[in-house]
Amino acid sequence: MDVQLSNLKFDSGGLIPAIIQDAAGGQVLMMAWMNRDSLEKTIQSGKTHFFSRSRNKLWLKGESSGHVQQVKSIAVDCDQDVLLIKVEQAGAACHEGFYSCFFREYEKGAGELKVVGKKIFEPEKVYGK
Amino acid sequence: MDVQLSNLKFDSGGLIPAIIQDAAGGQVLMMAWMNRDSLEKTIQSGKTHFFSRSRNKLWLKGESSGHVQQVKSIAVDCDQDVLLIKVEQAGAACHEGFYSCFFREYEKGAGELKVVGKKIFEPEKVYGK
User: Do A43 and B17 touch (CB under 8 A)?
Assistant: First the structure.
């Protein structure tokens, strides 16, 4: 790993959270986990790669949907245990069809979370059934 | 806990990551962890409260520095295991004196992380020595 990133603190499972932000609009798109390998692949390829804890494997964001994220910058927080990656998002970030995964908001007194995001695509058309 | 938040997925340690974003400028300020109690206190008070894993206790952001965060909105991601909280930040978010904790960037080929953030205050003046 690049010497600049040698002080990164990965957790006991070897992972670090990566916040993904839209480089143009500033919208926070998602958060996912990286291990050293996925961070290296992200840097080498210029496309975000994450580590799936449920599937226990590396994945290229957009590998099924084509909704890849071109990396524009990688920032590190003060404690060096969180990454902030600005990207150019193809299509939409969320597998539910929304541009951002944070498409629901809490509203005091409401009965349920309110959908505030805009649907960009229909998941069943992109991923099949 | 409010019924809207009853499906939130806290990890095995009872925690959920909370991304804090500047409501006005869109800058991502920090990421910290919340348990149910800190999320409830955040909602009740309108000021962010987190759970410190190292000190094993709840803390009000800004309790020493006065740099509190007024909550403007709380969004939940598709998997309901990450929060995105937009705030109005008093002073600066980072204890190192920068507005955002993500004040250093990776630059291919550079010898070290590059400081890209602007220093707002001198930590020793705010926290004492």
Answer: no
